[in-house]
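User:
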Amino acid sequence: MREVPRDGKLPATGGSEAPSKTLRLGYHGRVTVFRCFILLALSAGLFVAMAQDSAEAMLNRAIELYRNGEVDQAFDLANAAIKKEPRDPTGYFVRGTVFESRQQYESALADYEHVAKMSPDLALVYSRRGGLYFKMGRIEDSITDFDKEVTLDPAKQKNHWQRGLSYYYAKRYQEGADQFELAFKTVNPKDYENGIWHFLCRVRIDGIEKARSAVLNVAGDERVPMKEVYDLYRGIGTAEDVMRATEQGYPNAAELKDRLFYALFYVAAYEDVAGDGESALRRLNRAVSNFEVAHYMWDVARIHRDLLRVERKGSESEQ
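Assistant: Predicted structure:
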């Protein structure tokens, strides 16, 4: 390797202009050469694995790579496994997962549909495709898939919070309330989010005051600022209390980002049902645009924002 002069031209390799001395690389140059060597070695190892391994071994390695955040290599191995064994649905499932993580939803959907055709009794594919449908705004389709998942794996019914969320956004509020109450009573009585979404569903059915009289007695969830959010919903706290709570205990940057996302989202959800759509939309925009978290709930906030935008535009055009 040779260093490139500031003018961007490589020196000649022969004749009178050829360098008379061996090029000496400084520390950073040696590090660069070493890193390039390692990268080439890893790439060569990947290609050897792709050429020699079975499709099953490739997919096991792809799953490991994906879990370690090495998404591009996982994608390459999944593609190679599909070429080697196109009848194995696992390759399509892994590749679909990578597509989904990249927000390439149509490509992910095509792979999940392939899995569903090849393994129609696999509950997991309906869970994954149902979640994908939700992210795509196809709410009723998500419920159809979640229902299929529960039919194939009845144990999932008690705590199927994703289906509860889909019920809410499909305006099937009683079914949503029942889902979150079931989770509270049978699986997770300490999760404030079961209480939050049960409350939001009940407000849509009965109004805020009646919803407060039927609030679930959740306690024990130590995530900040969930207690303050629930106090707001119960009528014994304020939005300002929620936002102040995000700074409790001097959180690091990552924790503060997470807290601010949930604070903004859940205050916005409350303001929405309380009739303050303007403030709700403003907070939702901040949550989605400024505090993106690597969790399904970020997509829930995004869908909520998009639906509220449409609703408000419709209301304004009618005035």
